[in-house]
Design goal:
Number of domains: 2
CATH architecture of the largest domain: Alpha-Beta Complex
Oligomer: single chain
Number of strands: 17
Structural class: alpha/beta
Strand content: 25-35%
């Protein structure tokens, strides 16, 4: 099959991806073979390739096929597979599989499992024509959602859904979303569904145009946000989705006393204890979170903004992402 291999840790400008012909995946008894129809391009793919996750042991191997938000069609079933048939439309999320037996797994929090495997970071991912995945960790794609539209639901969709739940967003709260990218434009919509007054903050005008189109109550350039919030009142919840230390510093300045800062990125945060705000984090989501995300999307309650690109263009797409030129989500199509 054709695949994009990350052959070394390097800046994306130095072209560390190699578009090659590699062996098809080998199918284990509990796995299905999926012909990939679409794979979203996540900012964390870029972080991994450029070495920002090395201290976390990511990537777990080299070379590796990146990509962790995948849709496709089942072409083959392992001998132990139950509940799926060939020809079914399915998706694979970041959570490739977990140990299934630890305290986190048996309480529905398998995204926290210490033995979890991440698609495209520990095992080969979706920048390819095929992937083999455990049947009990894939999800059926609703009939009314296309492959390209559906792929981003398996990372920014589920990540945003769980983040809004974790932040405890309530009706009438003022929620600021910093970074209106792949995850941010979904968090904005889930926060609105929860009944919040939404404030979209970004340093790029084109990202804010997307937020405006999605119905954000306020749309602010990052440089203007703090003065504006001093006038109308600080935020009850601030969700940080911009991969920027400056965004984290800004979150501390615009959160109200007793509020919640949701960290959706890596970074350092200063705790100002007299303000009594809470700092929480959120990581991908469970299998149940995935089902709920897909159900909400199938009801037409959220919209995915995506642009398709050819699989062979992956390196160029990641460079565009780094430069802030991707609106919503880029999706690779084999």
């Amino acid at each position: 099959m054709r695949a994009q291999l990350c052959t070394r840790i390097d800046k994306i400008e130095n072209k560390p991806l190699s578009y090659e012909i590699v062996d098809d995946p080998k199918l284990e008894p509990n796995q299905v073979l999926i012909r990939i129809k679409a794979c979203g391009v996540c900012h964390s793919n870029l972080h991994m390739i450029e070495g920002e996750f090395k201290e976390l042991g990511i990537p777990a191997k080299l070379p590796i096929i990146p990509g962790h938000e995948i849709t496709g069609v089942i072409e083959e079933l392992g001998s132990d597979v139950k509940g799926f048939e060939t020809g079914e439309r399915v998706g694979v999320q970041v959570l490739y599989e977990s140990c299934r037996t630890c305290e986190y797994c048996i309480t529905g929090r398998e995204n926290l499992c210490l033995g979890r495997k991440a698609t495209g970071e520990v095992v080969d991912g979706g920048y390819a024509e095929y992937i083999a995945a455990p049947y009990d960790f894939i999800s059926k794609l609703p009939d009314n959602i296309g492959f390209e539209e559906g792929a981003p639901l398996f990372c920014p969709g589920i990540t945003a859904y769980r983040a809004v739940k974790r932040a405890g967003v309530k009706f009438g709260q003022r929620v600021a979303i910093i970074g209106i990218g792949g995850v941010g434009h979904m968090s904005l919509q889930f926060a609105k569904l929860a009944g919040a007054e939404t404030i979209a903050i970004d340093k790029f005008e084109n990202q804010l145009k997307l937020a405006e189109d999605l119905g954000s109550d306020h749309v602010l350039l990052a440089d203007d946000a703090e003065n504006y919030l001093l006038k109308i009142g600080k935020a009850d919840v601030v969700m940080v989705h911009a991969p920027s230390q400056n965004a984290i510093y800004q979150a501390v300045r615009i959160i109200k006393r007793g509020g919640v800062i949701l960290m959706g990125v890596l970074g350092d945060i200063r705790i100002v204890f007299p303000e009594e705000y809470s700092v929480i984090s959120s990581v991908i989501g469970s299998r149940q979170d995935m089902k709920e995300t897909l159900r909400i999307a199938s009801m037409g309650k959220i919209k995915v903004k995506w642009t398709p690109y050819k699989l062979k263009e992956a390196g160029d797409v990641l460079l565009k992402l780094k430069q802030g030129q991707i609106i919503g989500r880029a999706v690779l199509v084999p």
